[in-house]
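Students often ask why we bother encoding 3D structure as a string. The short answer is that it lets us treat folding as translation between two languages. Here is a chain of 99 residues written in the first language.
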Amino acid sequence: MNDRVKLTYENTHIFDSYLIRTKKDMQRFLSSLREQCDPDMAVAVRSMKSLICEWRSHNLFYFLHVFRSRTKDVDLERHQSWWREMFCRVVSFFYFWDL
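And here it is in the second language, the structure alphabet:
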């Protein structure tokens, strides 16, 4: 891939993910990863909406200076618990940096 991403079957780690701010750019980035990877990789298994909600949640916390060392990158794991997915959907609703 490239030096911004580490892909495995269980996780997609995007370094400095806060640099990509808009939903449209996130979708483009994830779509390009999906085109280049095995269909069983973590980024290809989860829905685009779920991946973007989690990414936006990380960005929101990063821009609010909450756990910046942990939220500057995003780990998009293959299996996400239902409560974490619900949390990310709610939190991502408050992310306004892509308007």
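Translate back mentally: The chain has one domain: 5-92. Keep this in mind for the problem set.
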